[in-house]
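One such shown below:
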Amino acid sequence: MSQNSRPKLLYLRILLVTTLLLNTIAAYQLFWPIYKSGILFTSRRWMAVFLLGVSVIGLEFFLLCITATVWKDKFIHFLETTLRTAGRMRWFNLVLFTALMCLYAIAIFGPTGENFQPIR
């Protein structure tokens, strides 16, 4: 490992540990009341959201483990290349972000908001 990649690796690990902890705490706070009320395993939507949350937490843990293996230099190079490429596509990123936020709102609430129901 080069001397130049050590600070990058430290920052990456701090970022991954922080997001892993925050996502785990958020998932616990979101899903524990739903689990206690019995809705989690009876609702397809809540089960899909639960599986997505667990998948994100698993992905973050997997990426954190990669930073401790022999592939860490390749992983850092991949991240640098990806960020450099994304930096060149500024307007496309803005359009993509806006479209994904609209699709997220439609997926959660429905096109007219009919899926917005409070938890019992």
